[in-house]
Write a structure and sequence with these properties.
447 residues, single chain, six-stranded mixed sheet, Tachylectin-2, Chain A, mainly beta, 2 domains, ten-stranded antiparallel sheet, globular, 1% helix, Jelly Rolls
Length: 447
């Protein structure tokens, strides 16, 4: 099986949303939406990769694929938990009522049903996809509760007195909505409550993820139709501190939110607790074109989520930080896993990495990737952060197809898909550049 370092990439074909992210029996398991036969979206499976350190990843092949009526047109996104030594997988199964006769991987007239299913594994390796699946929440037929088509992506967690599950949906008035369920046994689920927002937060909320940190409770959602710019991607991931009362599943959402990432290329993230108890997030990088006409889709660097005074920080995971210890003077001295640049930009200062431009304008960091990006519609070539409050220290992780800029140790992050980077790096009005690659002897990283 193929191995990746730092950034988990499609082993071939297509990948999108991360699924079932969990630390289980001494390994991190990361499943993902996958179509292995071509670099394009089609009938979804769950691909599977494992790692002992969130750095070195080994693909395990396909774990889930359609076998029952409820998931015959795709095993869509979901999550994983551990209970009594078993791995429990929860996901959305899709059944097309009208498949396109010219392409059975597509649905006509948005006419499909979505149900929530589960499957257990005794070891995280074997999956009885023919006999082990169970429908836990059938396709919704009550118009007062969610939507039979656009209800998906179950996230399960252990509460104080029971198990809880949240799925993304929409109201009959086309507002994004969350549906909360409770279970005593992980099999029988009872609807408890729902949450929505009168403000325009998109017409459907994909991939909900609720969790608690020392600094506060956090909701991450991926609203469809959040931004209304014609001809550009409208679906984007946002996050916000929330109030949540577990017993009644009452959630209060604020009027303001942060973007997960201000490059607006990352989507559908998922979090888990790492070996040390830190909340860690990964997300899918939306890419416009396949690489070598072979694969498309990859995941960002694992990021530790913290909340401080109501602001959500996304910091590079310590295991990744510790990798970049070999000083280099030129990108060509790095290996295939890329390199890291650290600097501080003065007012009006800029940094150009292989054609990708980063500049400071006032208290914001702005980027322009127009020279290293295909002429695709729907993708923005320029991006910017909100105003920074903690300085202008940048840590920039450069991969062949992904640049991630962490400002002030995660105050904001701006990540961009790129193509055709050169080996040239130049800076103007920047502090001393520090450039590091992964140590050649690094094979393992302690947790």
């Amino acid at each position: 099986m193929r191995k990746d370092r730092v950034h988990l990439k499609a082993p071939g074909g297509w990948i999108n949303d991360p699924n079932g992210f969990i630390y289980y029996k001494g390994q991190y398991h990361l499943f993902y939406q996958h179509f292995p036969y071509a670099p394009r979206w089609a009938t979804m499976r769950w691909g599977h990769a494992v790692s002992r350190d969130l750095v070195h990843w080994e693909h395990q092949g396909v774990a889930l694929y359609p076998t029952v009526s409820e998931d015959q047109n795709g095993c869509f996104s979901g999550s994983a938990i551990e209970h009594e030594g078993k791995l429990y997988l929860y996901y959305t199964g899709v059944h097309y009522n009208q498949a396109d006769p010219d392409n059975i991987h597509q649905c006509l007239n948005d006419d499909f049903d979505s149900a929530q299913l589960m499957l257990t594994s005794p070891d995280g390796v074997s999956f009885d996809v023919f006999h082990g699946k169970r429908v836990i929440i059938p396709a919704i037929t009550d118009g007062q509760l969610g939507d039979k088509t656009h209800t998906r992506d179950p996230k399960v967690w252990r509460g104080k007195d029971a198990w809880y599950l949240v799925i993304g949906s929409k109201t009959r008035y086309n507002k994004g909505e969350l549906l909360f369920y409770r279970s005593e046994n992980l099999i029988d689920w009872e609807f408890v409550n729902k949450a929505s927002k009168e403000a325009d937060f998109g017409w459907m909320w994909e991939c909900p993820d609720y969790f608690e940190t020392e600094g506060g409770k956090v909701l991450v959602i991926s609203p469809m139709g959040l931004r209304k710019e014609e001809g550009l991607e409208q679906n984007h991931t946002i996050c916000m501190p929330v109030e949540f009362e577990e017993k009644t599943c009452t959630m209060e959402l604020p009027d303001e939110y942060q973007y997960l990432d201000y490059g607006l290329d990352l989507y559908a993230p998922q979090t888990t607790l790492d070996e040390a108890g830190r909340r860690v997030l990964v997300a899918w990088l939306r890419m416009p074109e396949a690489v070598d006409n072979s694969w498309i889709g990859m995941f960002c660097i694992p990021r530790v989520v913290e909340v401080k005074e109501g602001h959500i920080y996304f910091r590079v995971h310590p295991n990744v930080k510790r990798l970049y210890t070999r000083p280099i003077t030129h990108p060509a001295q790095a290996d295939g896993a890329g390199y890291k640049i650290s600097c501080e930009l003065e007012e009006g200062g800029s940094l150009v990495i292989g054609g990708y431009r980063i500049r400071r304008e006032g208290n914001r960091i702005c980027t322009d990737r127009s020279r290293v990006f295909p002429g695709q519609t729907g993708f923005r070539t320029q991006a910017e952060t909100p105003e920074l409050k903690e300085g202008f220290k940048l840590d920039i992780y450069v991969d062949t197809n992904l640049i991630e800029i962490f400002m002030n140790d995660g105050e904001y992050v701006l990540s961009s898909a790129v193509y055709g980077l050169t080996d040239k790096v130049s800076a103007d009005r920047a502090g001393a550049l520090e450039m590091h690659a992964i140590a050649r002897t690094a094979e393992t990283v302690d947790g």
